[in-house]
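Page 47, continued from p. 46.
Same chain as before, 280 aa.
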Amino acid sequence: LSLPSQAELHAARGRTVPARDPATLLPSTRVLLKRREVAEVEHELQNRREEFQQRMQRLAQRRQQLARRERQHRDAVLRFDSFLKAVAARQERALRRAGEERARAAAERAEAARLQRELAGLLRHRERLARRLRSLRPFGDYLRDVVASMGQFQDVPAMLVHFGVLAGVRAALAREAEAGQERLAQDRARLQRYRQETSTELLGTKDELARLHTQLEAAHQDVLQWESCWTHIQSTATQKTLLLAQIKLAVLNLFQLTTAQLRIPTDRAQEDTKAQLDMV
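Result:
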């Protein structure tokens, strides 16, 4: 029994067919209608399968496009950073060379004036040292008297060296404490900047994760919807197949009953339903 073509099915759908009582139709005609209905269901099932596969392919292509765009964006950012660093390095070298040239010219012009000022300053400093020596002479006498009374040091320079060492140690300790405070302040500032940067990156990551989770949920809903549709289609196809098998079995039983009652020899194949209907 041949199946109707796709064009014939569309033409049959477009024509207005008068309603007829199924009891008035020939069994072969009813079988033909049932087979055409099964063919339509199988065609619709194939269309749904192809549409579902195309939808999954588009989803995979979309994921690949997103990954490719992310890589392209990251590469572009790296190239732009490299370009900015190269430009900054060239500018810095040019500015440094220009500054060195100006510094050398200024140094040569100022060298003579500096030497003159240095000579005048040295003369003034010698005069100040002479006045200071005259003013400190009573203190020298006092220190010598102290060394003589203490008996701990050999002379005034030894006593001054001892107290100078103590003053140096105290100054070094003070400098170390100040440097430690400065390092502590720098570490606190770096920690604060790191916390702010980490918080900003975490917020951006959370937003991106929420967006991707939303997309994943939407894709999951689409998959569930198509799986439900596919299950319904399979169930409908199974029912149609079972109905067709029942029709074939009923025709075979009717054929065997008729030929047995009329004692007609049966030379029709067991699967040739159309021939069995014609014989009945």
